[in-house]
Amino acid sequence: MGIxxxxxxxxxxxxISLGNLAKEVGITDANLSKIKNNKVHSIRFSxxxxxxxxxxxxxxxxxxxxxxxxxxxK
Length: 74
What we know:
Blueprint: E1 2-5, H1 7-14, H2 18-25, H3 29-36, H4 45-55, H5 59-62, E2 63-66, H6 68-73
Antiparallel strand pairs: 1-2
């Protein structure tokens, strides 16, 4: 599986909408939606930095590594 983005969890926790967060981070709603729905293959550190600033969190609150072999054996 690899890296999973938990942006939706943090947005819910912080009570912030996609549109408001996109505006605060400085990216389009469409690009933020792709990040939120794990439809990206990469994310810039500058974007990750702005997300962490806007959500007052650490990268580890947004990103999780899931070993594909472990998830296959479950």
